Amino acid sequence: MRVYFKYVGAVFIPSEKNALELFEEHVISQKRNVPWSIADATAKFTIELCSPENEDEAAIFHESHKDMISWVKSGDRVPELDEGAERLKAALETGTLARAVQNMPRLESLVINLNQEWRDDEGDWDDSEDDESIVSSGLQLRLELLQTVRESVAAIFTLYGVPNIKTGISHLSLLTYLRLTLPCAYDFAQLASSMPDTIALRLRHLYLEIVDGTGPGGDRSYTHSWQGDGDPFDGDEGHRFSNLQRQYPNTAYMQDMCGLVNQCNNLESLGLVGTQCINLKGLHWQPANDAGLKSIYFSRVVATEEQLLSLLTSGREDGACHTEAFDIEDVELMDGTWKSVFSRLLTSSSLVFFQVYNLKYNTRGHSAHLARYNHRPWENVSEIWSESRQDCKNLADLIRTVERRGIKAVDRMKQYDKSN
To answer: Would you say which domain of life the source belongs to (predicted)?
Structure first.
C-alpha cells in the first residue's frame, strides 16, 4: 500500500459527494496510534478542482448555467452543480488543501488541475449594445469561489516550514515537480508573491497553464472575422471578456507570471500554456550552476530570439545547448529569426524529441517582414509561417537530425521534411 501511494499517488476531487469526509478520515487524519497514514506515504498528490470525467461539472464555476450544458433550459440552474460548488468552497475554506500538503512529508510532486477551457463562443456583438449589456453578456463566473481557490493555493506555500506533527519534517521539503492549471494569470501573480525562494529553488519541473481564454486574443479560432493583411484589427474584437478577466486581465499579469519562473533557477523542464499569448517580456531566467533546461513546452507564447536562446543555453562555461525535448506551438517571435533558434538546437547532442506547430513572426515585431501570409489564421496551420528559406532549411535539418538518432518523428513533421 505504501508503494502504491508513493508511485501512483493520491487524488482529491473536493466537489464530489462525500469526498471531503473520506479525504479527512483516510488521507490526512493524523492518529498517533496508527503506524502510518496515506498522507505519510504520498509522494504524488493531485487536486482536481472539478471532476475530469464529467465535462458538465465545469459549470460549478459559472454563475449561470444557461448555454453551458446542452440539456439545461435557458435560465435554469442545476442543483447538483450548485451543490458541487458549495462542496468545493467548503473544502477550500476549511484549509483542507494546505493541511493535506502539510501532512505529506514525502511529497515530491504536486498537481493542481482545472481541466477546462473557458471561451466566449458568441463574438460580434451588436454595435447598438451599451457597455453594460456587453459586460453582462460575457461569461459570468463565481468570483468569490475563484478567490477562495486563489487563496487556498497560495496558503499551501505560505505554510512552508511548519513541521509534520508525526515526522517533524517540514512540508514541501522534497517537492521538485509543480504543475498548476489555474483560471487566470493573476492567480500565478499571487502565487509568485507567496512562493518562498527555498521552494522555488528546489523545483526541477514547472508547468503553468491558464484556463480563461475569453475576450480578444484568447483563442486562435476567434480570428474568423479577420479581413487580411490590410486589416488593422485582428478579427477577434467582438469576443467578450469574462467578469474574471474584466477584473484581472491576463495581459496585465504576464510579467508577474514570468517572475514566478524567474525564481526557479534550477529548473530542468518548463511548460507554459496561455490563452491570450503569454508575453515573455518579463522573463529573465538564468540557470543556476551548470544546470539548464532539458525540456521545453510552450503554447501561445510571444518571445524574443534572445529569450528563447537563453532558455536553450546551459550555465556551463561553454554555454552549450543540452536540450533533450523541444515542443512548442502557436509561438510568435518578436525579433531575430527562427533560423537562429533552430541552429542552437542543432548543437545539442542530447536532443531526442523535437516538435513545432504554427510558429510565426509577430506582425507588430521587428521581424514582421519575415512573416508569411496566412489568409485563414483561424483554421490554417503549418509547422512555420516564414518567408525565410533558411528558417525552413534549418527546421528540416532538425527533423532529420532527430530521426537519425532513432526517434520517430510525428507524421506531419515527416511530411514537412519531405517537402523541404
So the answer is: Eukaryota
